[in-house]
Amino acid sequence: MKETILSINQLSKNYGRIRAVDNLSLDIEKGNVYGILGPNGSGKTTTIGIVLGVINADSGSFKWLGNELTNKERKHIGSIIETPLFYPYLTAISNLRIVADIKGIGYESIEKVLKTVDLFERKNDRFKTYSLGMKQRLALAAAMIGNPEMMILDEPTNGLDPQGIAETRNLIKRIASDGTTILLASHLLDEVQKVCSHVAVLNHGKTMFSGDVDEVLTDTLTIEIASDNLEELQKSLTDFSNLHSITKEGDKLVVRVKGKTNCGELNNFLFGKGIVLSHLSAKKKSLESYFLELLSEKND
Ligand SMILES: Nc1ncnc2c1ncn2[C@@H]1O[C@H](COP(=O)(O)OP(=O)(O)OP(=O)(O)O)[C@@H](O)[C@H]1O
Ligand SMILES: [Mg+2]
After folding, report:
1. Around ion ligand 2, which residues have CB less than 5 A away?
2. Is any ligand 1 atom within 6 A of the Cβ of residue 44?
3. According to the model, what pLDDT value does residue 262 have?
4. How far is the CA of 71 from the centre of ligand 1 (A)?
5. Domain's final residue, options 163, 181, 215
6. From the CA of 17, how far away is ligand 2's center (Å)?
7. 253-263, pLDDT tens digit by residue?
8. Is residue 117 helix, strand or coil?
9. Average pLDDT, the chain
10. 45 in ligand 1 pocket by Cβ < 6 Å?
11. pLDDT of residue 290
12. How many secondary structure helices (H) and strands (E) does the chain include?
C-alpha cells in the first residue's frame, strides 16, 4: 500500500453563516498529484489554509505523515497560496535566500530551483522587474526550496497568458515526475485533467466525487440495477456493447456505461435477454457533465 502523506478527516469550517468546508475527508498518497477542483467559493483555499495551519478548523482533524503539523513537518511541505509575497526591490536570489532562512534550510538548492523554473539567467534581477508569469514561477521555485516531499499549489496558473499557463503546467508535471506529491487547487476542469492523477471535486465545501482522474473523468453514466438473479444479470451484461464496468454492491449491481448510453437502452437490452429488473436508477452523471452543471448553476 502507498504511504499516506496527508490525511484529512471530517474537516469543517464556518464563516458566520457560510459553511466554507463541510465535513471534508481526503487522503493524499505519496507520489500522486491531487487536484481539488471546485467553482469559486467552494472551499478550496480554506481547505488548503487549514492543512497548512494558517486557518483554524471548527472541527475535524488532519495529519501529516501521521503527526500534527509542526515545524518539522512544515519543512517537508512547499506551498504557494494565492498571492506569494516577495520583496519588490530585492533580486530573485535574495528573495529565495529569505525564504530559505524562514524555512530554516540552507541555500544549496536555490540555484537548482531557479534553473528548474527557468529563471536562472534572471536571478540577479529585482523581483519588481519580473513579468507576472515569472513572478508565479519564482513562487514555485520558493516552494521547491529544500526539495519538499509535498507541494501545495493554489490556482498556480491564475492570471497567466496561454503560454504561461502551459509552461506552469509542464513545470508542475516535471516536479511531479521527480516523485514529489502535489496538491493543486483549481477551478479549471481541463487543468486538473491535464496535470493531476487524482481529483476531489468540491462544491459548497463538500466533496462530491473523488478518485482517479482517468476513472472519474471518463464519460460514463452510473446505473444501479437489481433482479432476482444477480449472477444471471451480471453474465448477460457482459454482452452489452457500451459497458464500462460492473461492480456488485450488496444486492445490486452498479453498472457504468459509456458516453451517451441511457437507462432505457440498458433496460431494453436486458429485457431482450429475458431479464426483468426489480430496480433501476441512474446514480450519477459523468464528472464532466456534472461539473459543467455546477459551473452553470453559479453563473445563473
Ligand atoms: N476570511 C473569510 N471571511 C468570511 N468568509 C470567508 C473568508 N474566507 C473565505 N470565506 C468564504 O468561504 C467560502 C469558501 O471560500 P474559499 O476561498 O475557500 O473558496 P475557493 O474554492 O478557494 O474559491 P476561489 O476559486 O474563488 O478561490 C466562500 O463562500 C467565501 O466567501
Ligand atoms: Mg481559492
Report:
1. 44-45
2. yes
3. 82
4. 26
5. 215
6. 19
7. 988 888 778 88
8. coil
9. 88
10. yes
11. 65
12. 11, 13
Question: Among 13, 24, 42, which is best to mutate for testing ligand 1, by the most ligand atoms less than 8 A from CB?
Answer: 42
Q: Are 188 and 36 in contact (CB under 8 A)?
A: no
How does DSSP assign 240-269, residue by residue?
-TTEEEEEEETTEEEEEEETT--HHHHHHH
In the numeric block, the cell 452489452 is attached to 240
CA of 154 to the centre of ligand 2 (A): 7
Q: Could you tell me if the CB of 40 is within 6 A of ligand 1?
A: yes
Q: Which residue has the cell 464496468?
A: 245
Q: 297: exposed, middle or buried (C-beta count within 10 Å: 0-12, 13-18, 19+)?
A: exposed
**Residue 187, ligand 1, Cβ within 6 A:** yes
Between the CA of 12 and the centroid of ligand 2 the distance, in Å, is 16
Domain count, the chain: 2
Estimate the share of the chain in helix, then strand, then coil, as percent rounded to the nearest 5. Answer: 35, 30, 35
User: Which residues partner with 256 through β-bridges?
Assistant: 222, 245
> Is residue 300 assigned to a domain?
no
User: Can you give the three-state secondary structure of 87-109, one letter per residue?
Assistant: CCCCEHHHHHHHHHHHHCCCCCC
- pLDDT (0 to 100) of residue 258: 80
Residue closest via CA to ligand 1's atom 27 equals 40
Tell how strand 243-249 and strand 150-154 pair up: unpaired
Residue 152 lies in a domain: yes
Q: pLDDT for 69-87, tens place per residue?
A: 888 888 888 888 655 579 9
Domain containing residue 34: CATH number: 3.40.50.300
192 and 125 within one domain: yes
Is residue 135 in a domain?
yes
Residue 275 belongs to domain spanning = 219-291
Provide the grid cell at 169: 503546467
Q: Are 62 and 51 in contact (CB under 8 A)?
A: yes
Name the pTM for this structure: 0.77
